[in-house]
Write a structure and sequence with these properties.
- The structure holds three protein chains of three kinds.
- Chain A is mainly α.
- Chain A is built from 13 helices and no strands.
- Chain A has helices at about 20-40, 45-50, 65-105, 110-120, 130-140, 145-170, 175-180, 185-200, 200-215, 220-225, 235-245, 250-270, 270-280.
- Chain A is globular and about 75 Å long.
- Chain B contains 13 helices and two strands; from the N terminus they run H-E-E-H-H-H-H-H-H-H-H-H-H-H-H.
- Chain B has a two-stranded antiparallel sheet.
- In chain B, helix 4 (about 100-110) crosses helix 7 (about 160-185) and helix 10 packs antiparallel against helix 13 (about 265-295).
- Chain C is of the alpha/beta class.
- Chain C has two domains: about 20-140 and about 305-370, Periplasmic binding protein-like II (D-Maltodextrin-Binding Protein, domain 2); about 145-305 and about 380-420, D-Maltodextrin-Binding Protein, domain 2 (3-Layer(aba) Sandwich), CATH 3.40.190.10.
- Chain C contains 19 helices and twelve strands.
- In chain C, strands 2-1-3-11-6 form a five-stranded mixed sheet, sandwiched between helices.
- In chain C, a hairpin with a 2-residue loop joins strand 4 (about 130) and strand 5.
- Chain C starts with a helix and ends with a helix.
- Classes of the chains: A mainly alpha, B mainly alpha, C alpha/beta.
- Chains in contact: A-B, A-C, B-C.
């Protein structure tokens, strides 16, 4: 069945009856698109141009704003965000898929309790654990380092992704696994050689969800990290703002640099991205 | 399997344990510890903790900021449901209408774009938009001859909270819209065809077919939106220097952060965390139920 | 285990080892509160130069801004995670850190190196001295003054600096009449700016006995009616600031002053260099906060205190830390600081007509000329009380709270502080 909107050619054109609605859509379009356009435009202006002639195009494009933003620290934040995001994706996918396999292929009293335990984790809002986590990470000696973000990110992303992967695993026919076991595969081999390769779509969906979360997480990133060396982009932009309060050009260029990777990724992989975001139905 | 029983029983555990251990150590243990902390008074600067029983809970009722914060969270929730869920549904229905098929894709992508931008970028952007003397919003109002409406949006206690809430709407309406688009695309075409033969108008088709068919998604998005409203932290933290002016735009999460990490009242902050937990857990139970029944 | 999992684990392990990586060099940790230009570049260059001269030492430098620094350094000191060299305010803020027992007394160092000890303006060492021991050395000296645009004053026909608070208000009124709707503005969105006004005004208005009792955590009650009077008078100043004050920052206000659009600003001497940087041609004068006719405090004091650096007493590399500590205060480095930052320093002879400018030389004369200094209010009292005053005055400025409500909140905060101090 094709979606409703894609069938039935004809009688689809915009008539005069639709004009008021179209006008409203265009207003909405301007409200969303203009600020984004403004960032791109202002990132190429001097600070004076930004405050004195906010609507005009840059007289001479100031590409050095980007060079300055990169030099003043965005490059470091960028690398940190990359390290934290990739490691979080790897950690969550590894732990969640293992657990999902255990939960979907073995039916014992233990696995049923474990399922409840995992689902319960979905109810928890990370803010609630902020203060004890701060103490715990300090005692473990890993506060103010990559692990101070990676470990809590992994922990709080596990429940949702375990459940997502589990539901996919449940749909894989039992016969495939059984024939593999008859061929002499251990459970680990069945997991690694059959289930994981077969589950690429859901793993990709999960990876997008996790990346979205880890790339944008703010609360833990500002509280658990003191040092500029480990700051990710969202937290780093804050100290960047403080460092450049009067020099807006590079600040806005920094904002553009931070926003671009996800925008480009979204435009390139729109279908998968939307599938991931709707599968999660959970905002960052 | 003819291996011994211990091995057979241990096998699922090998798969499940790593995940369970991480969850236990970094999600459940802090949760329990937070509950314990809420009965103490302590400082981040000393290991000493003083047991105060329900003293912190009593203070919740004396602390006027809690009321202000909860009221602001409630404003977030109401406005977000109206704007994101109700308006998002209308937007989705319009863009899925055949008349808008050709332009729908462009609008859809554009409206969704803010969702993928980091909240700190968005807050910095709105910082520029709201600047009193050279900001985009006041500049725009003057440009179109409405200069009398210009005001210090974030500096007035009457507008600060609404200016902050508007940022969330700007960011998230596209997300909810997209969820509704996915839901609408699943509605069988036959329903609309039958209604069309009966001569039902577009408006009527929306109320008779679309609305009942996306009712589950309506519920899911409402719960997500309200849950998000309980957790709001970033916007007031960044835009109004932690809920200013005064405490006029503070939210419960910002109040918790400031009590703990700024005023060094860790025990009381833990109590506020318990309050947040209570509210969000109740909402999450609703969400969890919808997660199990809904397909997506 | 599949290869995929092994690969995933490898990523985890690599990330972990990046986090834990430590070079073979001696590493010392240096923590300061100036991620902002121009000081950021100055310290970057200072550290680079030190590392060049001492190839065996590596310096791990971190910085966060003002309010965050206060919070972080106290946590680090209390959790025994203390940096080897770090900056600190003087007076009560320093004393609170010293009480942890983890700050190194410098008496030995000063006795060993007499020339180093003698290189400072001695009056500025005193705010770092507690119970006869010196715990830090001053780098910058500072004070808060009203700066005014000379051209605007001349145009408005104002010929003399106000001598008391009433004259100050009269000056603002004159400016307002002469076409400057906001004769003064402050970035009230930054809560700390409020504490600078209130601290000075409390000191001027209240008797020293009252503030001594109230600023002490164990005895503070804040019931003296004088606090209310000060809040009322602060509101009189705020009334001149217009509706935008609560939505701009201090940096915005300074930019307005430097651009010649703002007649008067309450500003730190250390900011003179920043004004000069954005507008080298601006002509301005400045004066200490005027007296209250009915004030009981000493109107001759200047609010502001030196800032400097401290050493950890638990450092693993005390010798390397000490070397860097002294390096900061070397005369040519201090002189370079004056040149790059435009703020006055406590190192004798570091300021010359070559590396500074007339307003700055005047600033040092002002500091040396006053009877004494009063500490910053947000450092002098417990943060809960400072917060109640700052947020409260912000809410009064936007007409959301009455002064009575603010005082009730301050007194409630003082009660909590007292109960915590007694345990």
């Amino acid at each position: 069945m094709r979606p409703y909107s894609q069938r039935r050619p004809g009688r689809d054109s915009l008539g005069p009856a639709q004009l008021p609605v179209l006008a409203l859509l265009l207003v909405g379009f301007a409200m969303v698109a203009y600020p984004l356009f403004w960032i791109m435009m202002s990132s190429l202006k001097t600070s004076d141009e930004i405050s004195l002639s906010m609507w005009s195009l840059p007289r001479v494009p100031q590409w050095r704003n980007y060079a300055n933003a990169w030099k003043f620290g965005i490059s470091g934040y960028f690398v940190n965000s990359l390290v934290v995001t990739l490691t979080t994706i790897a950690g969550v996918i590894a732990l969640a898929s293992l657990c999902a396999y255990g939960l979907s292929r073995f039916r014992t009293r233990w696995t049923r309790s474990a399922l409840v335990f995992v689902m319960g984790g979905m109810m928890l809002n990370p803010q609630v654990c902020l203060i004890p986590l701060y103490g715990l990470l300090t005692r473990l000696g890993i506060r103010n380092g990559y692990l101070a973000m990676i470990i809590p990110y992994i922990a709080f992303r596990l429940p949702l992704n375990t459940l997502l992967i589990r539901s996919f695993f449940l749909a894989i026919p039992k016969e495939i696994e059984e024939s593999a076991i008859i061929d002499g595969c251990t459970s680990f081999q069945a997991y690694g050689r059959i289930f994981m390769p077969m589950s690429r779509p859901i793993l990709f969906t999960s990876a997008i969800l996790i990346a979205y979360y880890a790339w944008n997480e703010f609360l833990f990133a500002i509280i658990f990290i003191d040092s500029n060396k480990y700051r990710t982009i969202p937290a780093g932009l804050m100290s960047f703002r403080d460092a450049l309060q009067v020099d807006w050009g590079p600040l806005i260029a920094g904002m553009a640099i931070s926003a671009l990777p996800l925008i480009l990724f979204f435009i390139a992989a729109q279908k998968q991205f939307i599938r991931g975001m709707t599968a999660g139905s959970v905002k960052g | 399997m003819r291996r011994n029983n211990v091995r057979a029983a241990a096998e699922p555990l090998l798969f499940i344990m790593p995940c369970i251990l991480v969850l236990g150590a970094f999600v459940y243990y802090p949760l329990v510890q937070n509950l314990a902390f809420s009965f103490f008074r302590f400082s981040a600067f000393s290991p000493e903790k003083v047991f105060v029983g329900f003293g912190n809970y009593a203070n919740l009722f004396l602390d006027k900021t809690v009321g202000t914060a909860l009221r602001n969270n409630a404003r977030y929730a109401v406005i977000s449901v109206l704007c994101q869920v109700c308006f998002g549904l209308v937007l989705a229905a319009i863009l899925e209408d055949r008349s808008f098929r050709r332009v729908g894709q462009l609008f859809r992508t554009t409206f969704f774009l803010p969702v993928v931008i980091s909240i700190s970028v968005i807050c910095l952007l709105f910082g520029f938009i709201y600047r009193p003397m050279d900001g985009l919003l006041n500049g725009f109002l003057e440009l179109v001859g409405l200069g009398s409406l210009a005001r210090p949006w974030l500096g007035s206690s009457k507008t600060a909270i609404f200016a902050t809430i508007a940022v969330s709407q700007w960011q998230s309406t596209g997300y909810v819209m997209m969820l509704f688009i996915v839901a609408i695309q699943k509605i069988p075409e036959e329903l609309y065809e039958a209604a069309e033969i009966d001569g039902a108008s577009k408006l009527r088709r929306f109320f008779v077919i679309t609305l009942p068919q996306v009712r589950e998604m309506f519920f899911v998005t409402s719960v997500i939106t309200v849950t998000g409203s309980v957790m709001v932290f970033n916007e007031p933290y960044i835009l109004t220097q932690g809920g200013g002016p005064g405490t006029s735009s503070i939210t419960i999460a910002v109040h918790m952060y400031q009590s703990g990490f700024f005023k060094d009242m860790m025990g009381y902050a833990s109590t506020l965390a318990v309050l947040i937990f209570g509210i969000s857990a109740a909402l999450a139970v609703l969400q969890l139920r919808s997660f199990r029944t809904g397909e997506e | 285990m599949s290869k995929r999992i092994q690969a995933l684990l490898a990523v985890l392990v690599i990330a972990t080892s990046i986090a834990a990586a430590q070079g073979a060099k001696t590493t010392i940790r240096f923590f300061h509160r100036w991620p902002l230009e121009p000081r950021k570049s100055y310290f970057d260059a200072l550290v680079a130069e030190f590392e060049r001269r001492n190839p065996d030492i590596e310096i791990e430098m971190d910085s966060v801004i003002n309010d965050a620094y206060k919070e972080k350094i106290r946590v680090l000191v209390s959790s025994n995670d203390i940096p080897d060299v770090f900056c600190s305010w003087s007076d009560s803020f320093a004393y609170n850190l010293v009480k942890s027992g983890r700050i190194k007394p410098l008496n030995d160092l000063l006795a060993r190196d007499k020339a180093f000890a003698a290189s400072f303006i001695q009056s500025q060492v005193k705010p770092f001295t507690f119970d006869g021991k010196v715990y830090g050395m001053p780098q910058t000296i500072d004070g808060k003054v009203f700066a005014y645009n000379k051209a605007i004053f001349a145009k408005a026909g104002i010929t003399k600096e106000p001598k008391d608070f009433d004259e100050l208000l009269a000056t603002f009124a004159t400016l307002k009449k002469k076409g400057y709707p906001t004769p003064i503005i402050e970035g009230l969105a930054d809560p700390w700016t409020i504490s600078h006004y209130l601290g000075t005004m409390f000191q001027r208005y209240l008797s020293p006995a009252v503030t001594a009792k109230d600023y002490n955590e164990a005895t503070g009650e804040f019931t003296d009616p004088g606090y209310r009077v000060v809040l009322e008078r602060f509101q009189k100043i705020v009334d001149f600031m217009g509706p935008n004050a609560t939505s701009i920052t201090h940096t915005d206000a300074r930019a307005l002053f430097a651009a010649g659009k703002l007649p008067v600003i309450y500003i730190q001497l250390a900011e003179f260099g920043l004004i000069r940087k954005s507008n080298p041609d601006i002509q301005y004068g400045y004066f200490n906060f005027p007296a209250f006719k009915d004030g009981k405090g000493d109107p001759g004091l200047l609010t502001g205190a030196p800032e400097g650096f401290m050493l950890s007493s638990t450092s693993k590399n005390p010798e390397a830390a000490e070397r860097f500590f002294k390096f900061i205060y070397e005369k040519q480095n201090a002189a370079q600081f004056v040149k790059a930052v435009g703020a006055p320093v406590a190192v004798i002879g570091a300021m010359t007509p070559d590396n500074s400018f007339p307003e700055l030389i005047g600033a040092v004369e002002l500091i040396n000329g006053v009877e004494g200094s009063a500490p910053w209010f947000d450092n002098a009292v417990n943060i809960k009380i400072a917060d109640a005053f700052m947020r409260g005055a912000q809410a009064v400025a936007t007409k959301d709270k009455t002064i009575d409500q603010v005082m009730a909140e301050v007194q409630a905060a003082a009660k909590i502080v007292r109960s915590e101090a007694k345990k």
